[in-house]
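SEVERITY: medium
COMPONENT: batch folding queue
REPORTER: lab tech (J.R.)

DESCRIPTION
The queue accepted two submissions in a row. Attaching both inputs and their returned structure tokens so the on-call engineer can compare them side by side.

ATTACHMENT 1
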Amino acid sequence: MAIEKEKVKEALNKVRPMLQQDGGDVELVDVNEKSGVVTVRLTGACKGCPMSQMTLKSGIERYLKSEVEGVTAVEKED
């Protein structure tokens, strides 16, 4: 089943305000429809934050998996 890129964008938009409160943000880079991997770019304070990997996996990835059918993982672009 193909992942709908629009649904991924909508879900990320729900996460963004929490990141923006801390001076960071997230941008969608790519959605691999075959593997279900979503690639994002962390910006602002999130970019260099030592907790960014935890934010990515425990926050963004878990939320996208629950909101968008077919998402298997979220990775960050370096």
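ATTACHMENT 2
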Amino acid sequence: MTERFFAPCSRGLEAVLATELEGMGAQAVQATDGGAGFTGPFELCYRANLESRLASRILWRIGGGTYRREDDIYKAVYALPWLEWFDASKTIMVKVSAKRCPLQSLDFITLRIKDAVCDKFRKLTDERPSIDTHLPDIRIHAFLEQDRFDLYLDTSGEALFKRGLRRVSVEAPLRENLAAGILHLAGWKPGETLLDPMCGSGTFLMEAAQMALDIAPGLGREFAFAKLNNFQPEVWKALKSAAESRRKPVQFCHIYGSDKFGDALKIARENLEIAGLLAAVELKQCSVLEVPVPAPEGVLVTNPPYGVRIGELEELAALYPELGHTLKQRFTGWRAYFLTGDFRLAKLIRLSASRRIPLFNGSLECRLFEYKMVAGGMRREKVVGEG
């Protein structure tokens, strides 16, 4: 039986997510703002949760329709066969998001959906699920547009960027699925030299190492689909076993990380060690302006500080031109990628970006700047406006 799914992702990664899902056998894949819809057998959500590096969640569409008022939504939700999907012992949470919704209160719609589910259980079983807004067994998602809505069950549980690997972090960490998406956008492939010279807690390094060693990102965690009545443990066990058999022995993968600050590097080392990936990466404490160039060509990718970790804005403004000079003088033959929420970088680095890709790290709007370090012709004489 063909089911409908939706995989949300960080805005800006929709196209690469669609390609990833197609590689898993998803059908009718359609990238839209904030994610990608697709179809396939229900078991496809097992594989997508296990293997997607880019999705934030995998949502299973269970219903929807048109509406004019809150009661229309209540009736449509009440009519659904909830007892087929889970029992009253499970805790639930309802989340509602909307675009051009004419109704006044999303909180009231959330309450009406919760009431519809609980009223249905009470009528048929004299019991009702409890509400847990922190760690529920079942998450119910509703998406409202101007005159229609779609209802989903979340098959993931905790967001998929929570790989279950990173134990410690720095302030404002880079989300794992965004880091993986940036590696895809950069065209980095396992075997190609990778350098993060401001690695912080090591998110780029960990994602690259998992890609290089073919480690499915969901191997170290559990998922909400195991709490649904239609869960097939033998199918899930076979998928996990196949993923385990593909993972390669840990070895050095030509992935390099460095940071000026020893505390950050210590965190990266601890995270890599806990994940069993330390041997895949070489770490070094040094300034980005003095980092050794590990190969004649490769990919440099980093999330530089923007006014928080490095101190005063004046220091940062002074760093960018020096960074551009370092790239121009020492990294000829490399492709460099900077994710930043500080859009001054484009002007102050004094290099011509070949791409400026809008991305979001959570709610923070960022840009991914691409610089192809070809000998000569990189310095820009006139600063152009940044979009």
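NOTES FROM REPORTER
The first helix runs from residue 14 to 23.
No errors were logged for either attachment.
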